[in-house]
Structures are given as structure tokens and as C-alpha cells.
Amino acid sequence: MSRGIRSIGAYAPSNRISADAFADAWGRFDAPGIETKAVPDADEDALTMGVEAARRALSVIGVDGADVDSLSFGTTSPPLAEEELTARLGSFLGVPDTAERRSYGGSTRAGVDALVDALGREGTELVIASDCPSGEPDDSREHAAGAGAVAFVVGADAPATVVERTEYTDTYPGTRFRQRGSDTIDGLDIGTYDRAAFIQPVAAAVSALDSKEADAVALQAPNGKLPYRATGPAGIDNGDVAAVETVSSLGDTAAASVPLSIVRSFEAGNDRTLAVAWGSGAGATALVIEGTAPVDAAIEGGSEIDYPAYLRRRGDIVGSKPDGGAAHVPVPTWRRSLPQRHRHEAGRCPECGAVAFPPEGACASCGSLAAFEPVELPLDGVVEAATTIGQGGAPPEFADQQAKQGAFGVAIVRFEADGEVAIPMQATGDVEVDRTVRAVPRRIYVEESVPRYGLKALPK
Amino acid sequence: MRDAYVVGAGQSNYGSFPDESYRSLFRTAVENTVDSVDNGIAIEEIDEAYVGTLGVGGRQLGLAGPAVTEHVGLHGVPVTRVENACAASGYAVRQAVMAVRSGMADVALAGGVEVMTDLSGDAVRYWLGVSGETEWERLSGTTFAGVYAQMASAHMREYGTTKEQLSHVAVKNHDNGAKNPKAQLGFTCTLEDAVNAPSVADPLTLYHCCPTTDGAAAALIVSEDVVEEFTDEPIRVAGVGAASDRVGLFQRDSYNAVPAAEKAGASAYEEAELGPEALDFAEVHDCFAIAELMAYEDLGFCERGEAGPFVESGATRRDGELPVNTSGGLKSKGHPIGATGAGQVVEAFDQLRGRAGERQLDDPKVGLTHNVGGSGGAAVVHIFEKEEGSA
Predict the structure, then answer these.
(1) Which residue of B has its CA nearest to A365?
(2) Complex ipTM value
């Protein structure tokens, strides 16, 4: 076996909104072929979803973050327009500081572009495609906008390999774009022109393959209708696209769209998968993948939200940031605690062996001031004390989050690591004493315009 | 070591006073304190002052001590601001006792002040969170209601304590506060009111939480060498205990107790050479109902885990075996953070001197005050004793 895809992990937020909820609100729903779509919670974004997917891709084949030689991240919706987000991604995952990092963006092809480049590098590469596009509330692209993330572990001796690849570009400005400084995708909605911008590059890339034969086709899906406009010109079967599509349940997942369909194809055990990614502007990349790799996907919905709840999570009907100030933790102070924020790294006292969190100051057990030795904690812990912070009961820095998603649980969680430590954590749902929870990546808050990430407790 | 005595104590009304400033409230407290001294005292006779305040609102974070003492005409004396969150002025009293016992001062003023009701809701929530552990505990999304609610959850889990038992604390303290003309929430409430009130942080309802308050309080601590100049009925500071702990609840040895308070209580009992059975009353730090229940256990009023049934039995009502929070406590009298510890001493003084009006107990001899900072990062306990033979 040669270099290729060794494993895949996938994640989608558990919130779902139905097309009917949009239709009730607007009298219409402008994203054909979508029945439900995934909605990031108020503390989720492309970075946190990417960590979720990457954790799964690594653990399903027992690869440690420390074994990763290079890390790449593709998204059209980075939480910061400029900053090397692979640094924080790598910190969450324990990727070595010496690993190569690459970021891809500006196109819904970004995820597949990252995968293609990884195939050309050496060593173990972790490729993360994660996206949660958004648009103006009445825009068809916003109606379609979903959320999801996929991570590939790429390396030698892989069970799934790319046997052929083509690419095609045809210049079509103005079909889907996001202006500098804007959070929302836009377009001119010039019907025939827009369709041509999709169909031409897709059909051309597929036609250029020596063999486009496949058991399934993972085709870019800006909505649930456009992919099928291209099948005829590309000479591919509608059924092969429909068999592995995710747009009808997750919405437009942009850079993660094709990767998510690859997940579906691998889960189905298809020997041969044709993947066709498209990006506006416009261009397409076609890959033929032979074989399948182990998959760990958590993309099922958990909670149905209505349209007002959706608007709240989008921040569309949430007021400005309250006054009163936030708990000010200066960024350099925050940085010193990143191993704890991102990985719950605890410390063992070299004098008495007790485990401490955070691992700083005098040992609570013996009083020693000797430096703690790093201790890795399991992701799962047990709630020892818990409450629910109701609307208006949160410190001001969490008022925005509460306005978007309502009351949240808070708990002290005990983690066992040859000794016990307790960590105060916000919960992603209701928690009670004795409940088992898992530490999951979430945005904690935004202070001084800098998103701060950490771990929250997901009730199991 | 010299003995220290309380010869005067007084407070402002507790409540919401848009027309008052932190200085004017402190002035009222000092004037009432001076008025309470049997033989009178001139402000110039004060050698030293300690002022407890958290500085809610940030109005005078630096030099808050001189800012209020100069305002009341206490000119030129050494004054120190004491900050230990909600235990600020309990510690100010302790500092005054230390100054007197050490011989560095014969007359020391200990007081506290806070103004909390002139801020927006968001600003108040900001300030209510500043004494929690900032980097981890607060950033899990909690203010103190959330932290004490977690303590309640742990107490309920361990001992089967119920929401009704928590509510008995509110009913009792409101019953007392209704008889205290200086109380902020001087009305009675029923068990149903308390149980069914809106949730603040589950399992704590609105009636399980103290209000935010404007107010000031003060006490005069003098040495045994000069006490007779001021009164024929001296109240001796029989015992003082104080202790600290890790600021974050998650870092502590117990979630359903306040170890610093237990330690402070043990020290105070030891110094006073008496135990909880000798107490005639106590003022405890009931910022949340669960805090009063934990105080019963930390201070040995009942066995560990028995606080729920203990309050339910009526033992801590005014007519019970050990009346607790006859002033109304933080719940009904109010909780102006920096003033609270000194305000507890005011109630102890009033009870021991027969000045407690409608809520007066029958000739109490020994009383305890218990003041906790944050969720237990600091605690201070005082035991006051009416001198044998005094009228």
C-alpha cells in the first residue's frame, strides 16, 4: 500500500434546524434539496469543530498528536481572518512544535486542496477541513449554510489511495464571494451564469480523468440541487451522488462538503470513490480514491432548534456586548495556561506524587514548590458539584453566549490520572452530580477581540 | 497580651440609597458607633483605623481607608484598607484587636463600607465575580451564586439536604430581619415563597440568595487599660480565629464545607476556652442559604451533615436553643460586602448590651460572629463575652 488516507474523523454540531422552520418564518425556503442543516452552537466554530474531527481521526487508528509531522487546515470561515490557526489547532491536539503547518482558505475547495497537497508530502499529516459558512438572513446561501468538519490522517501504507487527480479552472467572477472584512458570503444570483460557473469546471475536471468509474461520487454541494445539474454534463450518475451526499441533512458545509461525502462513501465500504470539489471563481478538483480507511464520525443531530433559536445562535438578534467588563486574563497569561486550556495538562508533584490542576504553585498535598511533571488526563470525568446558570446569572463576559444559547451548566469535574484532580468547567448541556462528561473543545469567550478556546464538559 | 474590648458599635441602615455616598454611609456608621459608647468618645481619641471594603464599582480602589476616615474627621491617624472580599471588615475587626492586644493602640476603629446598588446589572455581576478564582472558576461561567449552588449540590448529594431545608434559612432570617429597623429586606416570607421563588442557580432560588446592598458598619475596640473610661459594661473579645484557603472551590479539600471557617472557629473556641455549647447566639455568613447550613457544621452547632434537620427543628430561631442571625443575616438585613463583618459585630454588641429591640434575646452572655470571604478563601470568627459582674 502506498501513501494515502489512513483514517477519517468527522464531526457536525448536534443542533439541527429544519427547512420547514425557515419556511414558517420566511414563507419560503431558498435552499433546495436541504431538509435539515447543522447549526454550530454559540461557542462552536471552524476551529473547535476541526479539533473534534481531528481527535476522532487520530484515535480511530491509535495515532497520537505527537506523531504528526505536518498539519493543514482548510476553511472558508476561519474564526479570525488573519492568524495562523493551525497553531491553536495543533496545541489542542498535541502536535509537535516542529510540525509543518499550512492553511487553506478562500474557496470551498480548500479542504480537498489541503488533502491533495498532503498526499504530496512525506510523513504523517493531519488534514482538517472544517466549515460553517453564513450569509445574510434572507440570502439563499444563508438558508443553505450548514456546518461540519472532517479530518484525514494521511501517511504511508494507507488503505485508501488517490489513484488519479485532475483539476480545471474557468474564470467566473461573482458567483459566490465574501468581501474583505465581511462575515457573510454573498452572490449576484445570475441564474444561468451561476450554474455554468459550477457545471463547467466540474464537468471538465471529471471528463479529464482517465477513468471516472466509481461506486459513489462525493460532489461539492452548495445546496441540494446544484450538484445534480452537473451530473449530466460530467457523465456521472445521480444515484452515485445521492448515495453519499450530506447536504440534505447538514446543509452546505463548504470546505468540508466533499470530505463529508468521502466519509459516507468509506462508511458504505465503496471500493472506488470519485471526489469532485468545486470552488467559486471558479475551479474544480477531481480525485479517484481506491479503498476505504477507518472512519469515526459523529455527525448525527441531537437537538432540533426553531428559527428564533437559530437567529440567536447566529447572533442576528442579540444585542451589543454588555458593559461591566470581563474577567480580564491578559493574553500572555492565557498563553501560559494553554496546555491546561487545550489539553487539561495536569502536573505530578515530584516530591509526593500528588496530581495538581492547574500545575502551578505549592503542591496542595505536601507543600513542595518543586516544578510539576506533566500528566495527561483522560477526556472523561465525573461531575462532583453542579449548577445551572440561568439567563442573566452569568458574568458579563458570558452574557453574549447566554443571549445566543440560553442557560448553561457549570460543574466541578473530577478526572482520574493515577490520582485525582478537579477542574471547574462549563457544560454544553444540563449536568448533575455523578454524571460522566467528556472534555470537548469550545470557545470560552472573546476578550480584547481575541477568541479564547478551552475545554467544556459534554454530558455523556 | 492585653485584652481587647468592644465599647461601641453602629451601622447605617442597609438598603439602596441613591442619595448616599460611600463616605456619607461610613459617616453614619461612625456617628452611630460613637453614640453607642456609654461614656462618650471624642474622635481624636482613636489611635488607629481599619476599613474593610472590596471597592465594588471601583469608586475608590486606592486609599479607600483615608478617603472615609478623613471624611469623618479622623485626621492623621494610621488607617489601613483591608480587602478580603466579603470578610473584609471581619478582618478589619481582627486587625483592630491585634493592634490593641499588641499595645500599639489603645483605641482602634474597625469598620467597613460598600455601595453596590448604583451600578448596572452587568457591572454588578462583574464585581460579584471578582473574588472568585478568576482564571478557571469564573471562566467556567460562574459568579458566587453558581459557586455556592455547586456547594449546595454537593451537600445535597452527600447528606440528603433538601431545598425545603435551605428555605427554612430564608424564613427564619426574614422573620428576624422584619424586627430589625436597619434591615434592607425587613419583611417576612413563607416556606412556599422561598421554595417556589425563581431559580437563580439551581438548586438556589432567589430566597436562598442575599441581596446587593449599600451600607456601612463600625466598631470601637479598646484595650483593657482604657476600657473603664468608656463603659461599665465591657464586652470582651474572648476569642479570635481566622484562616485562609485556596480561592477556587475546585482546589479545596471539600465542596460541602468551608474548611477555613472550621479552622477559624476552632481557633476562636480555643482562645475563648469554650465550645459551641456555651454560645447564646451567633451571627453567621449566610450569603446563600447553603452557607448558613455549612456554618452550623463548620462551627460545631450540629454534627456534619445534620444542618438541614437542625434548621428545620427550629433550633436556630430566636426562641431556639441557639439563635442564629437574629439581625436578619445577610439574607434579610443585607450584604454590603465590605461592611458585613463589622455589621455582624454590631448585632453581637446590641444583643449583649440589650439594645436589640424587638429581636432582643433573653440576657445573652456569649455571642459569635462568622464572616467568610468569597466562597471560603478567607474566614474570620470572633467570640464576644459580656464580662462577669457587669451590669
Answers:
(1) B253
(2) 0.91
